[in-house]
Amino acid sequence: MGTISNVQEGERLVGFFLVKEREVRVAANGDEYIDLLLGDETGTIPSKMWDVNDQQKAAVQRKTILKIDGTVRHFRGKKQLQINRVRIANDEDNIDIQSLVQKSTTSREELWQDLRMVIDDIQNDVYGAIIRKLFGNKEIREAFTTLPASKVMHHAYYAGLLDHVVSLCHSTLQLLAVYPHLNKDLLLTTCLLHDIGKTRTIHDAITPEYTDEGQLMGHLVMSVEMINEAAFEAGFSIQNEEVVALKHCILSQFGDADKGMGSAVSGKMPEAIFFNAIEELDAKLNALQMNKGQSEDGWQYHPMFKRKMKTDHV
Amino acid sequence: MGTISNVQEGERLVGFFLVKEREVRVAANGDEYIDLLLGDETGTIPSKMWDVNDQQKAAVQRKTILKIDGTVRHFRGKKQLQINRVRIANDEDNIDIQSLVQKSTTSREELWQDLRMVIDDIQNDVYGAIIRKLFGNKEIREAFTTLPASKVMHHAYYAGLLDHVVSLCHSTLQLLAVYPHLNKDLLLTTCLLHDIGKTRTIHDAITPEYTDEGQLMGHLVMSVEMINEAAFEAGFSIQNEEVVALKHCILSQFGDADKGMGSAVSGKMPEAIFFNAIEELDAKLNALQMNKGQSEDGWQYHPMFKRKMKTDHV
Amino acid sequence: MGTISNVQEGERLVGFFLVKEREVRVAANGDEYIDLLLGDETGTIPSKMWDVNDQQKAAVQRKTILKIDGTVRHFRGKKQLQINRVRIANDEDNIDIQSLVQKSTTSREELWQDLRMVIDDIQNDVYGAIIRKLFGNKEIREAFTTLPASKVMHHAYYAGLLDHVVSLCHSTLQLLAVYPHLNKDLLLTTCLLHDIGKTRTIHDAITPEYTDEGQLMGHLVMSVEMINEAAFEAGFSIQNEEVVALKHCILSQFGDADKGMGSAVSGKMPEAIFFNAIEELDAKLNALQMNKGQSEDGWQYHPMFKRKMKTDHV
Amino acid sequence: MGTISNVQEGERLVGFFLVKEREVRVAANGDEYIDLLLGDETGTIPSKMWDVNDQQKAAVQRKTILKIDGTVRHFRGKKQLQINRVRIANDEDNIDIQSLVQKSTTSREELWQDLRMVIDDIQNDVYGAIIRKLFGNKEIREAFTTLPASKVMHHAYYAGLLDHVVSLCHSTLQLLAVYPHLNKDLLLTTCLLHDIGKTRTIHDAITPEYTDEGQLMGHLVMSVEMINEAAFEAGFSIQNEEVVALKHCILSQFGDADKGMGSAVSGKMPEAIFFNAIEELDAKLNALQMNKGQSEDGWQYHPMFKRKMKTDHV
Amino acid sequence: MGTISNVQEGERLVGFFLVKEREVRVAANGDEYIDLLLGDETGTIPSKMWDVNDQQKAAVQRKTILKIDGTVRHFRGKKQLQINRVRIANDEDNIDIQSLVQKSTTSREELWQDLRMVIDDIQNDVYGAIIRKLFGNKEIREAFTTLPASKVMHHAYYAGLLDHVVSLCHSTLQLLAVYPHLNKDLLLTTCLLHDIGKTRTIHDAITPEYTDEGQLMGHLVMSVEMINEAAFEAGFSIQNEEVVALKHCILSQFGDADKGMGSAVSGKMPEAIFFNAIEELDAKLNALQMNKGQSEDGWQYHPMFKRKMKTDHV
Amino acid sequence: MGTISNVQEGERLVGFFLVKEREVRVAANGDEYIDLLLGDETGTIPSKMWDVNDQQKAAVQRKTILKIDGTVRHFRGKKQLQINRVRIANDEDNIDIQSLVQKSTTSREELWQDLRMVIDDIQNDVYGAIIRKLFGNKEIREAFTTLPASKVMHHAYYAGLLDHVVSLCHSTLQLLAVYPHLNKDLLLTTCLLHDIGKTRTIHDAITPEYTDEGQLMGHLVMSVEMINEAAFEAGFSIQNEEVVALKHCILSQFGDADKGMGSAVSGKMPEAIFFNAIEELDAKLNALQMNKGQSEDGWQYHPMFKRKMKTDHV
Lengths: 314, 314, 314, 314, 314, 314
Description:
The structure is a homohexamer of 314-residue chains.
Chain A: E1 12-26, E2 32-40, E3 43-49, H1 54-59, E4 65-75, E5 78-88, H2 108-120, H3 125-135, H4 138-144, H5 160-175, H6 184-193, H7 198-201, E6 202-203, E7 209-210, H8 212-217, H9 219-233, H10 241-251, H11 270-290, E8 299-302, E9 307-310
Parallel strand pairs in A: 3-5
Antiparallel strand pairs in A: 1-2, 1-4, 2-3, 4-5, 6-7, 8-9
GO biological process, one term (chains A, B, C, D, E, F): rRNA 3'-end processing
Protein name (chains A, B, C, D, E, F): HDIG domain-containing protein
InterPro entries (chains A, B, C, D, E, F): HD/PDEase_dom, HD_domain, HDIG_dom, NA-bd_OB-fold, YhaM_exoribonuc/phosphodiest
């Protein structure tokens, strides 16, 4: 059966789809309709429900699951799903909402196991205690293991944040063989907690949005705040030298502050320099990988790079 | 009697001076000497103590007060104090170290009274509680009312930080008459606490230095940390909407983050835009004022502006 | 009765509207229609007049007043007014065109009184004479008191320029209490005349456009030219020290020239630094204020800031 | 006989030299001396007059001519002239001060003849009248034909401004054969008057300094002011379309304003784009030419380019 | 007869047109249509062929010539050609494809003659040999004399590259009269070969596209590669001093490398500085000339300048 | 025995030293002396040989080995070696010049063995052939295994280039476990050859200098030229897709071209993005490592980062 990512213009598409965005509009003829962004496991496609009544307007909300029989049309430069028949999914359909969102290739469970092994590898008492406090909190753990790393840019899928963190831990462990003088526990803890604030800046793993607090504070400082809370609970001063080194690596994760990339402070320790490099690399490679196979000639415009990239090559 | 700022080349200078920096050196002839930076209430001047013995090397440290009879010479493009006679000040000299450092024009005590009146004017319970927790802490209050706002750039004198904060409060109160729709309590609290982290990033009001933690974290984030501590103690969540607004104004105090001026996040509220403008203005006007009267034609190179400025004019 | 700013999609809108832009188009079916931008006291909305004949095409021009009975529709992501009935307003309708444009909250007359009081406060003979020459010119005064300060960015409404200038005078008078060492007459004259060139760069207060000369010269240099003309008429040299200081503050009003913000020269006097700060602040706060209340969650993208801003807050 | 530019370390140098800068200093031993910058037709060299008495201090000023017998020494990375014998030149020495400054290769008189031919070639009445008013003013003509184009950067020698302008006129005339659609009279007038404001921003052709007015206004706007004065005297409006085009080309002479290169407005006409290109090229090629032959390997650091340039090549 | 550039909205347009781009689409009603970009000697216009069958879809490709009878309509802010009747051109129509593309004003043959004269003027054996090797290659010569200099920016028409190179040779020859110390043969060879790599980076003179290799290498380095091949064949080392100077001027043709304009290295020789200036000037003036006469008031937005330019003026 | 890096001010230093730079100077008293930069295995120190005769001036050249008995003095803010006794080393001293230069911690021989293993691991025929051609050339191999990677910035020591390349190969092999979809042979070949052009841009492993050709071409393009030569000799087209991919990764090694970091083209393939990240990381970490242990408090200004870095930490 077709999916959003592989269906061609003119083809029929039948199945269950998740409502990711919806807005009620009035058309030129005075009729109301619902503007939809629909999603399945492979991607998203815009659509419209015409001639909707008040009951339908109330029923079709974000995260509603719809069963649709439609055809793909070309509309102002983009594919759109023209609905022939539609109904709201019911309990008997027995659809798991998670089957309708994009996910990491490795399962969330496997990724969590990988992460556990990294945590067990950390010797430093301070870092160990902070990590246990944070991941021991059920609410934080739930958010951390389901949220995307960002809405659009990279690892923008269910459990994308976890996928990103596990990838960074692996990179660090591999490169420590080349740069053995770097502080392993500081680096791994930075990998694990560098985006922990995203559990407060991104809301909802299925239809993610940025919180007010997230937009006003930024996830770097919010990661620091959560580390401070954990350190305090674990009985360590937030001015402890090792805690400060950890916070420094997190606050400088986007590179030089004077280049305006988003760091709160410029990296001033070798570990901060190292972490910025592998974090940026992982985000970029994931962004390229996420968008592979979408053009005929292998070239595709990437907003992250602001140029055409050759994602499919020799 | 002459002072450092008004003494001319070739003139004699006699009095008590504070050792602000010192380093032992070996001259070309093999003799040891001490390289000094001396200060009085009006400024600083380099000097050298020749032919020093071990006892002198041990006695002359940072913050030592020296009685000197010397002459001002020209040496590689700058004035230097050539010492004719020198001795270490003793108890009988009865010199108060604070009489040998540059200070704000308004006394520390008056500034503190001004600040108290501003605090009394704040209605908001959350902000009021946080301010009382912080200024109620004797150690913080002591640092806050004696430290400079920076080592070199602006308000670089004893109690300069307090002077800067009081000036910002006055600017805010005056401009609220023009922009009455802005949130007064949020603005005044931002003025009061925007640099509170400097009490942890700058060490020693007499011979100030930046702490390791300060260089690794930056005073913006450290101000936020101190506010969080105070909010927690006062029984407010650090995610409280008003606390978040306050922290936002502080984290964006240097303007747009993507311009690389040092903000942790770009200002996104009118109060943040307002505070950035008056903070930058006060720093610039103070920097120009601090360096007035130092050139013959009224023009002088300013590192903050990276150009010659006309500080004495029509 | 509904207005452009508060009407909702699907609602009816009846009243008089000003034609702010119009263009005759040919539709896909070969019929001609007029593309309109309509305005009332609260804002603007696009519309279309279909099946127009030659007489209508000739009659409906910029500044024509139309009486319309229409319904608001959603069209390509924006509201549009669908016309049910339309006619051109006649003398009996007795509509004042000024009642159909956005205006400053304070009336033009009150603003002018405020300005007069500021002018009376200026002691300096040179500045006083230049101001009287310029505001004594009826044509300049008429333009100065009706034009917007810009077409889109800030104070983009009838008498917006006057509103902006009065606001700057108030800011200056208030802040002089904090910075009494600044030259009051120089600052107030800069406030009054910094945009005087806009009377030659912007044409027509109702449907404003930039003149050719304005685009080729910029309003900074044109303000200087008008000041020179006035100084010459008043018998002062354009190289007079006070005139030069005034022109310097105007030419540097957008901040450092090497940052490419539009200044002709970088500010090199404390007054120039001061004026740049308050001018930029007033423009930003007005831009935020102008766009308040237009989104549900209080966040809105602002072209001036190139990011989403939280204009409605705690 | 040796000259400043060709004398080697260790060699003797005897002759008349012009005092270009001087300052009285006090040495470590308490003696006063005069710090000098001496010049001849080929360049400049620092020197010191030791043990000077009050009479000598009074007599040796900027523009004083000294007869010196000295030896060239190496002092802190630079050549310095060590004076063995010195006296102030007297009338009998019969030294023309102009023989002691660097000059253009073509004589001032020939350059002026070239310029006259260009002026005669201009057909446009408005431009012709403005040019005649300005060059008809004796004071302006005297300054224009003797000043350097800048103190250090390019054409930094006696009559350098005239040399630069003549070179630009020649470039324009040559390139009009390639781009015949450009407005010849507009371009030539721009060449002739683009730096006319420098007659007010630079003071003294022999020991040039920037005036206060020049630093506060910039020579672009001052050129416009002088053109306005001339247009007014000649009976043309300063808003005349041709006058505006001329002023536009002058105000945009340093390229795009938003790149912060110093233009008051960005070039928006083909002639403005053209003039910026040839002006920048002439300045750069002259800067390279001025510094030719000063290093052994043909490579030399250039402040204008901020890198090493290969000025002597294949 | 009407042409694409002079036809007005509502008018009929009849003639032969070249298919420059085409894509098959599915409309909202399920029908297939072909989206077209049509061109003639004066410009391009979008169009749509409705209700196309499989045979038509196969027949209408890039470079197909269509005979169309249509009417110009306004569609989403742009002109569009609404087709009334259409057929594919046949042999009897006897249409030369080159008559349907934009071309340089001077004919390709004349430009080539101009170029030959420049080549004959070069004395230097090394440069002469390299030029002969490259232009002696029939494939290179064919591409060089038919390709545009770029797809959109400047000289974006048939033989535009040749037109650009000839223009640069003329500029150089003219300016050598002003700067006779520059190396004539180096400059002319740089003009001739600076874009020779474009014969490998741009594919097809009629419907030009960038090659994969071109996007991965850039035409600067590819020009250097072709020069190396020619030098090798001609028996000269690629490290030969004159060959290196030539490659330097080509690699630095876009100005300072640290400004990110696209140069591989910053210009470090006077000839490199010179070439960058005339190349940029020629590209800009051509871009302005290409877009002349397209707006009513003479002002038009230019993507190369990122602002409105006044292309039709006094 | 003391070495340059561990000797303290006032201490005696005796041993053999390499002359790295020398220049004959004339002192204020007229005597000639030689300004020296001396080096041993641990670093460099300036010195002066006084009262030198013609024979000494001729004998003491770059790379001369001197035996010196001296004392370390403080001179204008830096250590300097004051010579008590000095003679030129003779054959009997039997000093190997390589024992007097800084070197990689791993021996050149071991590094070469590592590199050989990487080469043997490459499967791709094209890349294998190019690598064998280049490293099979004795002259290239000799330069490649002895030169520093740069004069000052990073890996600035004997065999530093080889050290850098081996480190990059290790990083790549380690990270391929995390990013297995990347092209291993392309990445390893890029590591091996990305700086191969430095064998032509840097001259002399003992006292390295940049060649004229290197400054005019840059090592990126010169690496491409050498790869082209090798591909040609090995019978592959320089337009071969795999050769182009390799050259692309090399030309984009410094990141985005439009940021002006020195790349000839922006990276457009995942492998180019990857290589830029690990190359920059290795350079930065090495720069930090090279300068470790030189300050008391662990903080030190780094020209590469343009800020103080904390190189010695928790």
